[in-house]
Design goal:
This protein is an alpha/beta fold. The chain has twelve helices and 18 strands. The N and C termini lie far apart (65 Å). Specifically catalyzes the decarboxylation of meso-diaminopimelate (meso-DAP) to L-lysine.
Length: 407
């Protein structure tokens, strides 16, 4: 998928529009599966990264399972044809009733707090459960995406292991998996390997394990020359540690991961049209036909997305601040060096496959954009652009008599 293809997509489907390259998703999946040479490898794609049903069907065709955090994601996976046994459900702070509804659907349950664990074990001791451990390891590229530290709301503290074991013993429940997720954008595989040792130690307390799930958090590059997780090095080192643990444990277990961003981030491009070039006393603004209602990551996480003027690729670069049409602070990039931008040009944002459309909203009553999948050399519409009818579809209008007064 080249710049000419992207321009054709913007022309055919309008802007703004999200575009995903199926070949990149497939190559990332293959790279990951080739890095870990274990007896059984389970890859569960983190649905929250990009939940379009066509993306789920593509990953399912590769043999990938799903990591879900809500009953709706579980249902989406099943609708996409993923077998419930290949879906792991790891909620946070949900009701026992929702967890029990997921049980009926047949997904693997993963519980991350003692209260729900005790309630679930008391009511359903025969249903195997995975436990999410908090290893108290600070890892991740941003405080908002670091989830394994001591102040995190996620997981059961490793220091609560005696209490956890009492619950398991008293309820007679069966623990078939143990899990952790320390954060996203992990650069130092040493941190990941350190956390794995903590998880191995915790796993020794359970005798019926079928798998150990290391979550994910693998970093992808956001710009040319950027650092990324060395997945091959991690695969070699963690495979060795995992195989040694399995020998000590007495049988082969499955090794599981839950990549989201790693699989889809680099596949995505977000295309937007330039509405206006605005020169002020200090800045040249390129105002585009979108905002943080469609792509909130730069404002929310401070994330970096490379911005390219695909309408004028050979132009002399100038410095621009690229901004959206939302009335609050809505800046995608300050003082970016981009090929000269003209009104009407199409800008392409890279790394738009993960946590981009899935976090889009109707703020300012704007329509959410279309999604397109580039597959086998062709553009396929996988989500229609919203319409005004979509905005009002679920609203219930009241009628008021302007002549009456409220006493």
């Amino acid at each position: 998928m080249n710049q000419k293809d992207l321009l054709s997509i913007a022309k055919d489907f309008g802007s703004p529009v999200y575009v995903y390259d199926a070949d990149k998703i497939i190559s990332q999946y293959n790279r990951l599966t080739n890095a870990f040479k274990v007896n059984e490898l389970r890859i569960h794609y983190a649905v929250k990264a990009l939940s379009n049903i066509s993306i789920l069907k593509l990953l399912n065709s590769l043999g990938c399972g799903l990591d879900t955090v809500s009953i709706q994601e579980v249902k989406l996976g099943i609708k996409a044809g993923v077998g419930p046994a290949k879906i792991i459900y790891t909620p946070n702070g949900v009701s026992l009733e929702e967890i029990e509804e997921v049980v009926k659907l047949g997904a693997q349950i993963n519980i991350d707090n003692l209260s729900i664990l005790e309630q679930f074990g008391s009511r359903h001791p025969d249903i195997p459960v995975c436990i999410r451990i908090n290893p108290h390891v600070m890892a991740g590229g941003n405080s908002k995406i670091s989830v394994g530290h001591i102040d995190s709301k996620f997981g059961i503290s490793i220091h609560q292991m005696p209490h956890l074991l009492r619950i398991v013993e008293n309820t007679g429940m069966h623990i078939n998996g143990i899990h952790m997720h320390t954060g996203s954008d992990i650069l130092d595989i040493g941190v990941f390997l350190h956390a794995s040792e903590i998880l191995f130690e915790a796993a020794r307390n359970f005798k019926e394990l079928e798998f150990i799930d290391f979550g994910s958090g693998f970093k992808v590059p956001y710009r040319e020359g950027d650092i990324e997780t060395d997945i091959e090095d991690l695969g070699e080192q963690l495979t060795d540690k995992f195989e040694k643990f399995c020998k000590e444990y007495g049988r082969e277990l499955a090794l599981a991961f839950e990549p989201g961003k790693y699989l889809v981030s680099e596949s995505g491009k977000f295309l937007a049209k330039v509405n206006v070039i605005k020169q002020t006393t200090s800045t040249v603004f390129a105002g585009i036909d979108t905002g943080f209602n469609h792509l909130i990551r730069p404002m929310f996480y401070g994330s970096h997305h490379e911005i390219t003027n695909i309408s004028n690729p050979d132009a002399k670069p100038r410095f621009y601040s690229v901004v959206g049409y939302i009335c609050e602070t809505d800046t995608f990039g300050n003082n970016r060096r981009i090929g000269e931008i003209r009104e009407g040009d199409i800008l392409s944002f890279s790394n738009a496959g993960a946590y981009c459309f899935s976090m889009a909203s109707n703020f300012n009553s704007r329509y959410r954009p279309a999604e397109v999948l580039w597959y086998n050399g062709q553009a396929h519409l996988i989500r229609e652009r919203e319409t005004f009818e979509d905005l009002t579809r679920h609203q219930v209008e009241m009628n008021f008599d302007a002549t009456s007064s409220v006493e």
